[in-house]
Amino acid sequence: MRTFGVEEELLIVDPVTGEPLALADALLSAPAHDGAAHDDAAHAAQDGTEPGPTLEEIDGPDTGLSHELKLEQIETQTRPCRSYAELLHQIRRGRGLASHAARRHGARIAALATSPVDAALHTTPDPRYAIMLERFGITAHEQLTCGFHVHTSIESPEEGVMVLDRIRDKLAVFTAMSANSPYWRGLATGFESYRTQAWNRWPSSGPSAIFGSLAAYRRVVRRLIETGVLLDEGMVYFDARLSRHVPTVEVRVADVCLRAEDAALIAVLVRALVETSVREYHAGIEPAAVPTALLRMASWQASNFGLRTELLDFGTFRPEPAADVVWSLVEYLEPVLAEQGEFDLVQTGVAAILSRGNGAIEQRGVAGRWSESNGSAPDAAGLAAVVEHAVQITMRSERDESDTKPQPVLTWVRQDWREAPG
């Protein structure tokens, strides 16, 4: 079984106004603990979140916290894991560490992919980020977005490229499942994952073409850097890429998930997709030659509608009910999931997401209830209520069983996209 791990980008927010706070430097430079950890359980009892990390965890050699582009966000990283349960524990631990650090400064963390509440933004003091700000203007200045990156181990870079070529047509499903950014700095965007729209303003972002070989992949990366547009290889923002630092394929299309259990579930599906792709390669199955333009349409559809209506089916690239497309992906991955003992877990988790909705649907629900109570469209106070709800769900320690309603497994027979009528 392949190891996998994740990176989560989280917002640092004011617990009252919901505004993002430029506190990343303070959170990362403070001592590991100052006695506040002893108060975390009391805080959790008051606001319904899980207790913070133990002192042993805080004193560990690697906190798994780091800077991102903006001082209003902080990134967590898990260690390589082998199971859903292990990864879920690591995700919650990272959120707990970030929450503990934020509480010392009167702040909270929220797993929101964009900020519902507007505020001034501050770029992390770093020479590289300063160059990005100067070169890319408003794209860099406004880029307060929080993604969820899944790393899955590979045997070699050559194997990794074979994976990239075979997973590209299915990645939009993860955007829809994770969509958690309907609001953008005080505005209702009309999108479920507006983070995807904001992120895709970078010149190298989005789906990539089929590479065919490691040499071709390296050549494309080199040519992109040689244009002088990108600073370095770190700015090659493909939807999926080879990691520069660890032997993994990194899938980068998802919003940070409001719920930790949804994040771990999506990571399990990504790992199964990687393993399935490797098996297809060894079986001599060529990657589906889907034009990159169609992949962009699928990404846009997932970003716009999430799970609300239709997605583009990854076989035909025609619109189909979102639930059917999600279950089609589960069906496609079933052999690997069943072999690894994860199929039942995935069925339950996917049914839960389709039943209650993704983070975007949940955010809209909170805003709608606020509007009903106050007789107006969500204003700053209503969006602050969205953030307050997100803070609590971000740190919830267990799935509420009432959220999980069994759903039938729908079987969808897909055609190859080239055989689609018309």
From TrEMBL:
Does the UniProt entry include the keyword Zinc?
A: no
| Signal sequence segment | none
Sorted keywords for this record are: ATP-binding, Ligase, Nucleotide-binding
Coiled-coil segments on the chain, per record: none
Enumerate the catalysed reactions: L-cysteine + L-glutamate + ATP = gamma-L-glutamyl-L-cysteine + ADP + phosphate + H(+)
MF terms from GO for this chain are: ATP binding; glutamate-cysteine ligase activity
Top-level taxon in the UniProt lineage? Bacteria
Pfam families reported for this sequence: GCS2
> What's its EC?
6.3.2.2
Q: Its GO biological process terms?
A: modified amino acid biosynthetic process
Q: What class of enzyme is it?
A: ligase
Q: Where is this region: Disordered?
A: 34-63, 396-422
What does the similarity note say? Belongs to the glutamate--cysteine ligase type 2 family. YbdK subfamily.
* Purpose of the protein: ATP-dependent carboxylate-amine ligase which exhibits weak glutamate--cysteine ligase activity.
Q: What is this protein called?
A: Putative glutamate--cysteine ligase 2
